[in-house]
Amino acid sequence: MIISPEVRAALDTGRPVVALESTIIAHGLPRPRNAAVAAELEGLVRAGGAVPATVAVIDGTPRVGLGKEELDRVANDDGMRKLSVRDLAPAGALGASGATTVSATAYLAARAGIRVFATGGLGGVHRDWTATQDESADLGLLGRTRIAVVCAGVKSILDVPATLQRLETLGVTVLGYGTDEFPGFYLRSSGQPVDWTVGGPREAAAVLRTQDGLGVSAAVVVANPVPEAEQLDPALHDRVLAEGLAAAEREEVTGQAVTPYLLAYLTEHTAGASLEANLAAVRGNVRVGAEIARCLAG
Ligand code: PSU
Ligand code: MN
């Protein structure tokens, strides 16, 4: 694994660092918007007084902190695979390149010594789980990795109550960030309650410090809702999502392809509105991630 000099220096001197994933760039957002978003997110981390560490695997080498050229490859190279944590070893051994999901990003970032990671929405338990057993590797990995993940909940294409139940089973702490309801990714609320609420970055950082003191080594999900003004219209969301789920079933989309398929379906059939809500959520999470990292460092 190569940690970029800037990230290395920040970690060595205790300055705030925020990890960012690359799957959202390579497979979650349409081109050419994705490259601009990758740069924008790094800029938001910097504006928040922290160092961005985007994670990806380039020609077999896991990288924590990407240069401009690598970021461009993540956004535009058709050969970029989607790498979950189980894919890291074969990608490394065979020299493949790929974008890292939440699970692979959290794994590599924690290994590099990064405490805070910001993304859009976690993977989780899919709605047809009893038939397909499709559950994102994100959850299992978060159950054994000490990292804070700032996200807007889990993607609403999933079974949200089942995902929350699995997080509980796995021992993952879930904090509502200024809310007592679990966010619904494109929507402010999923309608599900959370057990714990933090009021801001100081309280979130205090939870992380306390967790360190206790030696608990699971993730803390900091669930930060998209701003109300920028959420997707809930009625439109429910209608298009139902159509998208039916289309995925009709077209027999399975495995790793399911999440990108549904995200793209929503973008297309909401005339881009879901994409804007998605981006608003990610931006908010990246800002909060930088604030929490700063509180931790200071
Ligand atoms: N959130 C987004 N866009 C994405 C993802 C999350 O807004 O593309 C990605 C994350 O990388 C997450 C992955 O880890 O989707 C989950 O995929 P799967 O369900 O195949 O595990
Ligand atoms: Mn899956």
Q: Could you please describe the fold and organization of this structure?
A:
The chain is an alpha/beta fold and 298 residues long. The protein folds into 2 domains: 1-114, Indigoidine synthase domain (Indigoidine synthase fold, 3-Layer(aba) Sandwich), CATH 3.40.1790.10; 124-298, Indigoidine synthase fold (3-Layer(aba) Sandwich), CATH 3.40.1790. Helices cover 49% and strands 14% of the residues. The protein has helices at 5-12, 23-28, 33-47, 68-76, 88-94, 102-112, 129-132, 137-142, 160-170, 201-214, 234-250, 258-269, 273-297, and strands at residues 2-3, 17-20, 51-58, 61-64, 81-83, 98-100, 116-118, 148-151, 173-177, 196-198, 220-223. Strands 1, 2, 3, 4, 5, 6, 7, 8, 9, 10 and 11 form an 11-stranded mixed β-sheet that branches. Helix 10 packs across helix 13. The longest helix has 25 residues, at 273-297. The radius of gyration is 18 Å and the shape is globular. The mean pLDDT is 96. It binds pseudouridine-5'-monophosphate and manganese (II) ion (MN).
Q: In a nutshell, what does this entry contain?
A:
With 298 residues, this protein is an alpha/beta fold.
Number of domains: 2
Total DSSP E strands: 11
| Total DSSP helices | 13
**What is the highest CATH level, the class of the largest domain?**
Alpha Beta
- Strand proportion, as a percent range, falls in 5-15%
Question: How are the SSEs ordered, and which strands pair?
Answer:
Layout: E1 2-3, H1 5-12, E2 17-20, H2 23-28, H3 33-47, E3 51-58, E4 61-64, H4 68-76, E5 81-83, H5 88-94, E6 98-100, H6 102-112, E7 116-118, H7 129-132, H8 137-142, E8 148-151, H9 160-170, E9 173-177, E10 196-198, H10 201-214, E11 220-223, H11 234-250, H12 258-269, H13 273-297
Parallel strand pairs: 1-4, 2-3, 2-7, 5-6, 7-8, 8-11, 9-10, 9-11
Antiparallel strand pairs: 3-4, 3-6
Helix pairs in contact: 3-4, 3-13, 10-13, 11-12
Bound molecules: pseudouridine-5'-monophosphate and manganese (II) ion.
Manganese (II) ion is lined by residues 134, 136, 258.
